[in-house]
């Protein structure tokens, strides 16, 4: 169904734009947030994260390609840890499927392939962070077997 391959520079730009868009949408649930300030914050954070990811062997950014159509359908980015407490953990930093390809099994296939590859390297746990107002993503993660382990709560003063 899919092939995971190294991401190109052009695809990295698309990943950055999609990641910023998803973060802005997720942060829209925060009341009183200035949308331009939120977008600026998200752009800076994504640029920093991608730049840092390119400077370490612990992070991997891959393009998800449909083997049926040979079309790029999305991307996945994950981080390994060398800290003893987290040495058996992979953190999914980003999983994005382009809108035209959603709900066709590509995200689940990418998670399955990453999990299978990393399990052979001794990884035993997978974690990610998601905005709870993005129901489509939350449904996927819950159906995949991910469980909420920590909740961040807000109160406006």
TrEMBL record:
Listed Pfam families: Acetyltransf_1
Any one Gene Ontology BP term: mitotic sister chromatid cohesion
CDD domains xrefs: NAT_SF
N-acetyltransferase domain boundaries: 13-157
MF terms in GO: N-acetyltransferase activity
GO cellular component, one term: NatA complex
Entry protein name: N-acetyltransferase domain-containing protein
Organism: hydrothermal vent metagenome
């Amino acid at each position: 169904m899919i092939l995971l391959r190294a991401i190109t520079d052009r695809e990295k730009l698309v990943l950055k734009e999609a990641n910023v868009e998803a973060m802005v949408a997720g942060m829209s649930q925060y009341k009183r947030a200035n949308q331009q300030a939120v977008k600026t914050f998200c752009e800076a954070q994504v640029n920093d994260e991608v730049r840092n990811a390119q400077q370490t062997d612990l992070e991997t950014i891959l393009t998800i390609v449909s083997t049926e159509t040979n079309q790029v359908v999305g991307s996945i980015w994950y981080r390994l840890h060398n800290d003893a407490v987290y040495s058996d953990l992979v953190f999914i930093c980003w999983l994005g499927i382009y809108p035209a390809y959603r709900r066709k099994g590509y995200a689940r296939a990418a998670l399955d392939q990453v999990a299978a590859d990393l399990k052979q390297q001794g990884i035993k746990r997978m974690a990610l962070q998601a905005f709870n107002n993005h129901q489509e993503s939350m449904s996927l993660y819950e159906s995949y077997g991910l469980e909420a382990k920590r909740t961040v709560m807000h109160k406006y003063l």
